[in-house]
Amino acid sequence: MPRSREKRLKSHRFFFPAACLHAAIALPLSMAAMLAGWSWAPGLAGGHHGHEMVFGFALAVIAGYTLGPQPKRWLAALFGLWLTARLGYALAPGFWLSQLLSPAFALLLAWRVVPRFNAAKKWRNRMLVPLMVSLCGLPLLWLMLPLLPVPEATTLLYTGVTLLLLLMTFMSGRLIAPAVAGTLEKRGITQEARVQPRIEAALILMLGLAAALTLLPLPVLPSGALLAAAGILILIRTVRWRLWLCLDRPDLLGLALGTVWLAAGALGMGLAWLLGRDPSALLHLITVGALGTLTIGVMLRIHYHAIRRQPPPSGVLMATLAPVALAALARLAAGPVPWSTPGLLWTAAGAWSLAYAFTAGALLLSR
């Protein structure tokens, strides 16, 4: 069969369920490794669970969202490489091949995805190219960590989280603004605040600069100020969408809740750095609250639109987003020294696992 006529498969049908199952399984195993002493999955213990959250789970969701339809051979190569990387890193994170697999997947993903965004004309749209290259290049930086002037792996994770914050901020605006405008226009209401280009431009510049500054051997005060200001702008942008006029659209309300988590996480992290406090607990407002809410909302929205041409049922959204909120609040309550409150950690892990197990079930079973 000529390559131009080769059958293409939708990437989200593979990467979305896999990402959900990874999220549902990896975090409880990580808690077991750290709290119960399980030693057979060293790649999920300690700081490694942050590596898997950003470079395993988040990159799988990004792959499902950005790749679109792919030829079977390319999709099989990408998915097989991602799966092998997850197993290899979980079982033997120190082995050289395990360390190479995640960067290999990320670079191959960037090679397939980045050309799709090159046609954009406005600079605000073209920023997806360097953002995707940066996100996909982070696993390579992680591999080169001993050679970099970055003091520890935690610093690189802060960079990754800030880049994810920027990506979620950008993409959530591009999803929510037109959907809200379309919903209101059907009722004869004009929505003036849509993409809000000035706020969007300011957020891109501030969060991009904050991510770059985290990699430099500089005080965290400038990054903290940029993050705090970005959190306030994200909240202003969300309020200007007037989502209280869309109470009959739980899918949009769920995505809006995700942007509120983004605002709270950015503001919390920024203030923690400005006050000289440990931001590790507040970081989870982004990596649990925002990332969980937005990824589940987007995956369910794409899935139900593909199979039924309608938003996901409100019951499914409640059954998934409520546990994510519980997980985020429990992890926040555990504080920057969480090991003294293992009950809260288990609550957070259990709620997170439940949310993604239910999401995986909805993606695999609803037709």
Automatic annotation (TrEMBL):
Membrane-spanning regions, if any? 48-67, 74-91, 97-115, 127-145, 157-177, 198-218, 224-240, 252-275, 281-302, 314-333, 345-365
Q: Which domain of life is it from?
A: Bacteria
Q: Which UniProt keywords apply?
A: Membrane, Transmembrane, Transmembrane helix
Q: Which Pfam families match?
A: NnrS (PF05940)
InterPro entries, alphabetically? NnrS (IPR010266)
Protein name, please?
A: Short-chain dehydrogenase
Q: Which organism is it from?
A: Halovibrio salipaludis
Q: What is the lineage of its organism?
A: Bacteria, Pseudomonadati, Pseudomonadota, Gammaproteobacteria, Oceanospirillales
